[in-house]
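Internal tracking record. Fields below are filled automatically when a chain is submitted to the structure queue. Please do not edit lines marked as system-generated. If the sequence contains nonstandard residues, flag them in the REMARKS field before resubmitting.
Queue: standard
Priority: normal
Entity type: single polypeptide chain
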Amino acid sequence: MLRLIITISCIFLLSGTAFIPSAKAVNNSSQIQPYLERVKERIIEYELDNGMKFIILPEKEAPVISFVTYADVGGANEEQRKTGAAHFLEHLAFKGTTEIGTTNYQQEKALLNRLDQVHNQLETAQEKGNSEAVKQLKTKFETLQKQASQYVKQNEYGKIVQTEGGVGLNAATSADYTVYFYSFPANKLELWMSLESERFLDPVFREFYKEQQVILEERRLRTDNSPVGKMIEEFLGTAFTTHPYQRPVIGYEADIRNLNRSDIREFFETYYVPENLTTAIVGDVDPEEVKALAEVYFGRFSRQETPPKVTEIEPSQTETREINLTLNSQPWYFEGYHRPAITDKDHVIYEVISTLLSNGRTSRLYRNLVEEKQVALSARGISSFPGNKFPNLVLFYALTAPNASLEQVSDALTLEIERLKNERVSDEELERVKTQIQASLLRNLDSNKGMARRLAEYEGKTGSWENLFTELEAVAAVTPDDIQRVARSTFTEENRTIGRILSEK
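SYSTEM-GENERATED OUTPUT FOLLOWS
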């Protein structure tokens, strides 16, 4: 029986501990660089013989540890007509193993297999239009689901984590990756090793069909019933013609409905191999103990075939593309431009441009479109969308003000972009933007969990966690000429995609 050992004070500590000075205290890069160098010196890398990587950062200020498992697989890795598999698998990764989440796995397994068979028969009957068979199979399917559910110990994985003092148990799926994370008291390192290794060594994708309905409902809320969600899906499908960034991470409705347990099992076995996993561990740990336990628990994984890589290359856009949707919504305006991946030398320049134009109330878009011209209620931008592991988009979007038109928003945005191309950014404004970027990064690194997530992400996306720290140096080196050069090459009519949400009213 697991024992409840955590106190309220320990829960408070598990929220994380600061590594570096508060973002509010940062005035320039020279102030934080010495702190970052000290952090870098404490980071230890370790790789198992099977290819799984560990990034360890000891931090003794509080008796807590944050764990992040980064799977180098996301929506972009999915096959055509099987979109949503990465996100589906994220949901199922919390369902337990042959030992966790069941009262009798052998009995449950037989029912799960029978459920799959009946589901396949039901789909066949529906395709043939055999209404009587459909009715009978639905009844049989519902009966089997009830029988299988009798063996399920609901959310047992999460209850174990919570009972043993864990907090923040969660996961996230993007176009580029899937990440799993939570924090434990420092004396629970081995328990984490056991739980995390078991769920990826011995997963059981139970309650598959129930979770399928949950995901379909999630899609209805985020996309089908959301004007902006609908536009984003259509916009990406217009801006990208070849690269899988054109597809939604949550998946198309028909694909979600057609996915089965064997599809998810195949996806898991293809991509959740040791060399595709990176774990970052930050907190009160002994690196030698981490290494020893990693060998015991994750060393059980055998080296597998290298997963297939995304090979599609988006061709250069040669003319402006447009997508217009008439919906029950206030008018929205979207404008996107293709840009290179995070590993490109100009990546930080796009970060600077996006921050300059759209970060907060001091940004150019807010000041000019919202405050001065009053053509928009909000105006923002994203420097990398829908991901940044591969060439992606700089995206700008604005909610039109009640007495303004989409054309006025478009004109005002174009004016700011042309200004960026033709006028040098002042040293004062550029320094302010650099400080904002530095402060934003510091906020992300100001806790165990934040540091662990960033270390794992940069290792997975760029090939080295050290690029997280060199990015700050690169930001400090950006010049007005760099901004002008990138703006002129990127913000062209032939590289532009426009999206408009037109009001039905």
